[in-house]
Amino acid sequence: MSAPDLAHVRAEAQQMISETETITALLSQTEQAIAETIGLLTDLSGPAAEAAHYALGQCDPARGGMLAVAEALRQYSTTLNDQH
Which of 33, 37, 65 lies closest to 51, judged by CA? Predict the structure, then answer.
């Protein structure tokens, strides 16, 4: 792979890492908002609170998946060298 191509791949990998970190942060914010919503719904609607609990339960696996993607991209980018 030529140096310009390698630089482009490195830049793309870094961009994907940055995007996964942004998504992970957004998932954390979403999780907090859902938890707050559950508190508001508990006294108003049992089914709505149950649905919100389900949504809350999906945030952690999604966040973990995004963290794994970012780590895999970091590991891949460390293998990119001028001899690759």
Answer: 37
3-state secondary structure of 37: helix
pLDDT digits (tens, 9 = 90+) for 27-82: 989 988 988 888 877 777 888 888 888 888 888 888 889 889 999 998 988 887 75
- Residue (of 2, 3, 10, 4) closest to 79 by Cα position: 10
Cut 0.85: pTM above it: no
Q: Would you give the distance in Å from CA 4 to the centre of its chain? A: 29
CA–CA dist 71, 53 (Å, integer):
28
d(CA 39, CA 35): 7
